[in-house]
Amino acid sequence: MDSDNPAFGQSSNSAPPHALPLWCDTCRSDKHLILHSIDSLPAGRDEALVHVIYACTACGSFHAHAAPFEHVAALLNKSDTIPGLMHFGGGYLHCGMPMTLVGVARRVIQAPPDRDGDPEDGLPDVEFATKIAQCECGFRLELPA
Question: I want to staple 53 with a disulfide (CB 3.0 to 4.6 A). Which of 42, 57, 64, 118 is the partner?
Fold first, then answer.
């Protein structure tokens, strides 16, 4: 069988695929899903369907099935951090364009000074690396490396 063939994995009766919700059965939630792939499916009678491959970042499970386009769009449009920023697979989109990695940086978070003035009792500084992604419009985002 040829996996590049559009009929790969489909039965010969060409019944329309059954749509399932975007959901992690292991976590019993849709809160931690990230899309990896979206492919078109033949137009159905009742609703527009797409084939999706996605993962749950909480438990690491992967899922692949037909899903209603409206559910996929809602997941893509969900942004918990920055309006206009979309996380898709391993990359980020801003202004509808993929952001590119433009560099790395080292950041330091300093603990507040001890109220008693004894530097030995304070917390150590935290040092970490970030990767810098930039959109064509100039928007920049620093992500943990």
Answer: 64
| Interatomic CA distance for residues 14 and 21, integer angstroms | 21
Report pLDDT digits (tens) over 36-89: 888 888 876 677 888 998 889 899 999 999 998 888 888 877 755 566 677 766
One-letter-per-residue 3-state SS of 22-41:
CCECCCCECCCEEEEEEEEC
Determine the Cα–Cα distance for residues 52 and 77; give it in Å rounded to an integer: 15
pTM > 0.85: yes or no: no
DSSP 120: G
Asked if 111 and 69 touch (Cβ cutoff 8 Å), the reply is: no
